[in-house]
Fold:
Amino acid sequence: MRDLCVGPGTTVTLHFSLSLTDGELVDSNFESKPAQFTVGDGKMLKGFEEALFGLEEGTEEEFLLGPEAGFGAHNPNNVQVVDRSEFDPGITLEEGLMLSFADAQNAELPGVVVEFDDEQVTIDFNHPLAGRDILFKVAVLEIKPATVH
Structure:
């Protein structure tokens, strides 16, 4: 073990899980290969990184992170109503169906069907975990100084 804590300038190897407060498991790598990231490299949300600051190798912790530290608040402006005629008639729409759209820069933008009728389809472009509290469990396996490339 080293006398190094998670913080800027470190590369961290860890196991983690994300759950909703009702216990629903969203993601976990405890049963598989650990994740590795360098603080600030963008692989992990800033709020998740900051929750780890000060932890040492061998530490296991659990954090409850609000939307502002996780996937952001649910933004009602990201819910759009689209004419049903814009959809291929062969698509079977159902609530919860995730579809792929193109944004103004032609980048892929996922959206979830919230409701629909014969005239309109309501699509939510928020991250599916936006507005949710997240239970973040971690087991820090290794911390080392980040290498500059």
Remarks:
- The chain has two domains: 10-71+130-145, 76-124.
- The first strand starts at residue 10 and ends at 20.
- The mean pLDDT is 93.
